[in-house]
Amino acid sequence: MARKPKFQKPAGMHDILPGEQKYFQKIYNVCENISNFYGFKRIDTPILEETELFSKGTGLTTDIVQKQMYNLKTKGGDYLTLRPEFTPGVIRAYIEHGMKNLSQPVKLYSMGPVFRYEKAQAGRYRQFHQFNLEVIGEGSPMIDTQIIQIFYNILTELKLKNPIIEINSIGDSQCRPYYKKLLVNYFKSRESALCVDCRRRLRENPLRILDCKEEKCQRIISQAPQIIDHLCEECHHHFKSVLEFLDEIELPYHLNPYLVRGLDYYTKTAFEIFSELPQKTEEKEFLAKNALVGGGRYDNLVKLLGGDDIKAAGAAMGVERVIEAIKIKGIKFPKSPNPSVFLAQLGNLAKRKTLKLLDEFRKAKIQVAESFGKDSLKAQLKLADKIGARYTLILGQKEALEGTIIIRDMKFGKQDTLKLEKAVKEVKKRLKK
Ligand code: HAM
Questions:
Q1: What pLDDT does 160 receive?
Q2: What CATH number should be reported for the domain whose range is 341-432?
């Protein structure tokens, strides 16, 4: 058995090897194109933020803040945290840079790594990547629907057909306190039958019990009062409008009264998007358990973080989970074409000249492959064949001395010698044919 290397990646974190990069590139490309179309602008915030930004923003009662943050103390004594999500950082930037003075709403997108100290398992990583959207400064339900529509479009553009939208309203400070009381009363009378986590949630954040996946809790949850029946008029109206807009654009959705989301800041709309489920049970379970997108409205967060009373909504997509869904479904993206030119060299003088020649091809925007490590012509021609190069340029000792180069047509096996300085022009001409 091969010996384990001395150093390995940290648990729950991954190297994105060259072979995987095409997925990230494709996904980010699709996300950026669609977001640009809808008027979003990119924002990059630091990967580290003050710890308090998350404990306040993401919320003290969340699993993220209680168990999952990577915290550190700097040499200067500052408490910083690796971002476990984008939203608090983006809102901090909105406030800090006075973006309320820009024309509202401000639509921002971000992408990159986020960090959560989770129990590492399939679909759940400690470093993963999100594509995140925020619309700040607008309370209209149309925005909630539009955010869902954008992520739906992103997924379908990535060939993940028929995504499943789950949606709920979790009310606001008008109606939620009363509903919470109802829930607490209901669960208190059944407390002994709840799991340990839910008993803790009962004191800290009873709404989160609705989200519990434990079988014994599920039975109790299924009889619990539902928030939908207890929304105040404004929340009710808002939710109804979001659903009507979804109907209007013909996006199918499932009402899920148990969807509460694991973050404290949501008000009114909460939603998640899942991949269409395949037949195979193992894969089905994975896709049913792991949302691809999660988001909703959060009308109090800007104020909570020290800004004005400004409404907002947003969502984020987990890039690794989307890649897993793409692989499960066997979706293939067209490979980027291999270079059509291979540059072979023999001997030291030729090697020196090829460096310059390669740079001329770069300037002419012609992709050229080479293998400076290989010295035998046979090996180099074999490689040129393998990548499917249309032409191989051969620069031997003799050619290097004479200032010429051989151009070999790989399809017909025919070759000509030409002046070295004409090489780029000639290849360009032949490739155009
Ligand atoms: P979230 O639901 O915590 O929401 O994360 C969004 C997405 O990130 C999830 O649907 C999932 O695809 C992915 N994700 C979450 N945790 C993991 C993990 N451990 N491993 C792999 N993927 C994961 C947020 O982060 C909110 N900030 C979204 C938002 C933006 N709400 C309003 N604006």
A1: 97
A2: 3.40.50.800
